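Blinded run. Sample ID left blank on purpose so nobody reads anything into the name before looking at the predicted structure. Input follows.
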Amino acid sequence: MVNSDQRRRQLAREKFERQQQRRAEARKKAKRRNVIIASVLAVVVLAGAAAYASVGLSDGDSSDKAATPESSDSASPSPSESSEPEPKMTIDKNATYTMALKTSQGDISIAMDAKKTPHTVNSFKALADKKYFDNTKCHRLTTEGIFVLQCGDPKGDGTGGPGYTIEDENLTALGKAGADGSVTFPAGTVAMANTGQPHTGGSQFFLVYKDTKLPPSYTPFGTMDDAGLKAVEAVAKAGVDGGTGDGAPKKTVTVEKGTVDKA
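Blinded prediction complete.
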């Protein structure tokens, strides 16, 4: 015979289990929904130390099947699923290029070496020439576990992309992964977002404003100048809208104009 105390404990247990199940389901949905760097380390926004499980740096796609920062219900297209071809190679593969971003929070100049990342540089050049980045927002700031500002989405919500994907490049540039599977992306680094799968970069990229540990699966293709790094640091200092560690920056960052030219 179950007495009243036992019954209360049983009901409390069942309620707790239901809450845990709902939270687990919510986490799964959030993980699918988020796109900048997918499945990064499990650091913690939750626990504060080495690996950030639910903050991925992934890239969306311009089609309705887009993904969002970490990965939405539908991920960015794989190379075989891309709706458009990668831009024809037109850059000088032996040259250096500069991507200049005029933003509402200051100018950011990014040096890019086409010899190391020809597909990435060529894609950014083709997109910038079409004014693809003009009047777009940097939609995501992370301030716990990983320290980046993510930009390059024409929709401004993490779901946009150019309709094609480009191959990963330069993945060994930051050294060999440590025991935790990560390498350090130094402050000032600019790298491609993806869906967590190989060769799924599109137009979204992230600006590292503080040394950040991530898996070596995101193409590092550029370096910010000092003024640009300071501008991003100021945005980060203002924090995330709503006071969380991951979301839209409190200081809205709009790329008013983006150009790519040979240095």
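Unblinding after everyone has recorded impressions. Residues 171 and 217 are 6 Å apart (CA to CA).
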